[in-house]
Amino acid sequence: MKKVVYPGSFDPVTVGHMDLIRRAAGIFDQVVVGVLINSEKKSPLFSLEERVIMLKDACKGIPNVSVESFDGLLIDFVRATGSDTIIRGLRELMDFEMELQLAQVNRVASGGIETVFLPTDPKFSNVSSSVVREFARYRVALPDFVPENVLQAMVNKGIVESTKQED
Ligand code: PNS
User: Fold this and answer.
1) Global pTM?
2) By CB distance 3.0 to 4.6 Å, which of 7, 75, 101, 155 could disulfide with 110?
3) How confident is the model at residue 43 (pLDDT cuts 50, 70, 90)?
4) Phi and psi of 21, rounded to 5°?
5) Which atom of ligand 1 is nearest to the CA of 10?
6) How far is the C-alpha of 1 from the C-alpha of 135, rounded, in Å?
């Protein structure tokens, strides 16, 4: 059985992340979504617990996906899950520069954990959690960028005022 780990901060999970999770679930037998506990991001939009709950909810229709949180090094988490493979999405060249370095470091430091990359669907290439967070700072929701349950959570928490997009 081939298990892959999809790590990230997921603050919050976006439709781009969900597309990658679905596609990974079609390629691998099991996908473990790993939510980083100690994100260096200074002002997270959602707590770890909230991020995990929203991801579990968004993934509940995909049977071979599980969601866990992790702290410390990614390669240690990958080993603990019994996997030897990481998957990451690539939206643009800037992603590639960063991801290539991470993949190479993780492979060398772990003695063989591989990273596979999936190109983002072009319709999601401008979607990112950081853009969602930036707009949320001004109380503006981006309904096309996040799953429905995340949008609801943002409204329920009072982070954004309305789910309606301006004309
Ligand atoms: O969603 P993100 O923030 O782009 O995900 C980044 C993540 C979680 C993959 C990366 O920060 C990570 O692997 N952190 C765990 C700590 C670690 O293993 N660092 C070593 C790589 S230099």
Assistant:
1) 0.95
2) 75
3) confident
4) -60, -45
5) 1
6) 41
